[in-house]
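Morning!

As promised:
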Amino acid sequence: MISAPYLEVAVLVLGTVILLIESFFSKFDRRYLGYAALVGLALIFLATFFIAPQSTMSSAPFWNFYSADATSLFFKRIALATTAGVIVMMFDFAALVSSGVQGATPQSGLGEFFALPLFTCAGLMWMASAIDFVLIFVSLELVTISFYVLVGFTRRNPASLEAAVKYLVLSAVATGFLVYGITWIFGATGETNLQKIATVLSGTGLEQNAALFGGVLVIIALGFKIAAVPFHIWVADVYQGAPTPVTAYLSVGSKAAGFIVLLRVLDPFLILPQMQTLLVAIAVLTLIYGNLAALPQTNVKRLLAYSSIAHAGYLLVAVVSFSGRAVAFYLVAYLLMTLLSFAVLILVSQPAGDQLESFAGLSQRSPFLAFAMLVAMASLAGVPFTAGFLGKFLVFDAAIATHHFGLVVVAIVTVGAGFYYYFKVVRAIYWDAPPASTDKIIVSPLTRVALIALIAGTFVLGVYPQPIFDALAR
Amino acid sequence: MPSFLFWLFAGVMLIFGALVIINRNPIASALSLVVCFLGLAALFMSLDAFFIGIIQVLVYAGAVMVLFLFIIMLLDLRAEERRTMNWVAFTGGFVVAVSLLVQILAVISRTQMAKQTFPPLASPQTDDVRNVGLLLFGHYNLPFQVIGVLILVATVGVIVLSKRQLR
């Protein structure tokens, strides 16, 4: 049996070792570092199934900050799986890291490219366990700062640089709101620990206005992380400009960690009715804006960016319905289908770019990739027998159980809009004629295995979700 | 501390904080920021938080500002002076800022805590550094370690983003 905090330590050691090998040995293929990272992440993922229960050692001040309950373990697994998926994508993206750089070899800069996601992963895992505002803030900053670097990693590409600057500035503003909100909550309750804040909030003689104001400011900051409207302005440009594996990481990892923190922070606050109204409003705006803005997009990366906003809306519906189970399942489904679509996008866009036209006739150039994208789009849209459908079903079920009928109506209408823009991609793949001079796309064995696993996961969870519920209920 | 000193330093901070964004010349902005930080340090000292006050001067007014001035040296100052005011953005930002201010004032006016008078502080504790250290390495050890990782990542990131030649 392993104690839970060692998981993050193991990820850190893995990242540091890779950085050290990268700097002290020069004559070897940098891709081995990526393989090492993958193997390490897989071992740590296995280790999450052998975690000792928390109760044996929960007296030290450490456990005021850190929780090792089933939910946090579950989100740690999401973080590990996402990071592994992103590193697999980085192999396919590697050629673009050094493109356009004078005097660069194909190996240039790859060592850091493989090492940095590991530190981000450690930050995401700490966020999953954080039950104190101090640790929430610090680990959120670790994640954000490593994302600044990753988004701007191909800085010779003006789009990547622009994305990095936009992300840096807006993210700094969001951080400012987070700190300010935390100070208001601390001022009103005198605590930073979420459980103690809950105790104070449920008591009498409380400065409710001050605490509520702090809570709203914290929601603004977290709304930025999960890409909810009206804190979404950065999403489309940053997603489009960032290196594609990093976009996938932002879209899945950052969002998952944002939602676990949101769930934990809202736990004490959701008893207040004003907070409910506010979140319902944010959810409605996010659903409508994300789905409508995705309709006219012709760039697949931008389309996925707006779809990521739309999915934040469905997740928020689950949050206001108090259903942690629906949030967790939806995030797993979202992980599978988003990683799948971005992995296909990397392979398809390498010669031709991110535009929808480069998908034209993909079914003839690579039937396997065409099928993978079909599954991803069907699941994102919510076709039955895919994980995406079951995720939406659970969300709507929870919303109906808590009598949010208006929300459900908005959500179902927007799902209809979703079918239109997701199947625009499918139509390009299967019905549009391919450009005259295109050759077959080569899929490396590693990517092929990863894609097959993601497709299988999408179908299995679409009909048999029980393993997820078991993992949550441990 | 006499309350007029509080008003003095708070006023200095507000005026120079405003000057940071009003000044068109980046060097004048940076120097206004130094004065603003000094006012903040003085406010910390007045709350008997001597250690934080001194760190504020050393780290922010000292190290961070030197860094700012170095970066400004590398920029083209003329470009900033040539920029014209974007009135749409200005109005939008102004409305947002004012509504946030109104919101904050409304919350403060309804907060009972803000109306009570606090008793004077106990005699200043001189083992400030020891207390901060004990808290940092004892109760707040985990967040402190995470900050260590954060700084490592920031260091790696700065090198990756700034080196001229990829290796």
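The mean pLDDT of chain B is 85.

Hope this helps with the figure draft.
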